[in-house]
Amino acid sequence: MIGIFGGTFDPVHYGHLRAIIEVREIFKLDEVRLLPNKTPPHRSEPSAMPKMRLDMLRLATENLPGLVIDTRELDRDGPSYMVDTLRSLCRDFPRRPLLLFIGVDAFNGLTSWHRWTELFDHAHIVVMTRPGYSIQLQSEFFRARQVFDAAELTRHKAGKLLFRPITELDISASAIRKMIAEKRDPRFLLPDAVLDYIHSHHLYQKV
Ligand code: ATP
What we know:
Elements: E1 2-7, H1 14-26, E2 31-36, H2 50-61, E3 67-69, H3 72-75, H4 82-92, E4 98-103, H5 104-108, H6 119-122, E5 124-128, H7 140-145, H8 151-154, E6 161-164, H9 173-181, H10 192-200
Parallel strand pairs: 1-2, 1-4, 2-3, 4-5, 5-6
The chain binds adenosine-5'-triphosphate.
Adenosine-5'-triphosphate is lined by residues 7-10, 15-16, 19, 102-103, 105-106, 128, 130, 169, 171-174.
């Protein structure tokens, strides 16, 4: 199985990195592919340019095994729709089930994603806990797909939904951006190498 972890990573922080390490271990994944998005459809324009978000992701992950930075959303024109990304990954890895990891905050907005029901045609979705957010399992569509045991994911190529607690770290990129703009010190919320990059490129100086 291949793990898929998409995000804006504006900037990448320990909330992302801890989650990525934990899900790789829990699901015994050879590989987790990190997909920085270009134009996120569900939020305002990122503050940092795509190349800078990518540089920061590279700096944060260079010593972590089993992670692959996948730039297909940055290389593609137009909005970064996850359904298109999953289709393209299925073409590249036709025999390997895909596990799409999203936080509870993202899951609660999932029904507004472009062609969201089709996500389940291409991948399983694993929802990770995140402080400050509780799961809203609104629809029968989700209940019908929910499984409670990770082993179930290995028995199907796609289409299942699993909720998985992970270590809850109350860290967000928006809070880090705000701290930097307010000239507060965000150390220990993100890697020092990323913070040095932010300072040397004068990023996030305005909210
Ligand atoms: P912002 O604060 O700018 O909205 P963010 O911190 O939520 O950014 P994203 O890059 O938008 O970061 O998140 C990418 C993915 O990582 C999403 O699925 C999100 O739910 C998840 N994620 C981000 N931070 C955490 C965290 N602290 N714990 C668990 N999941 C997280």
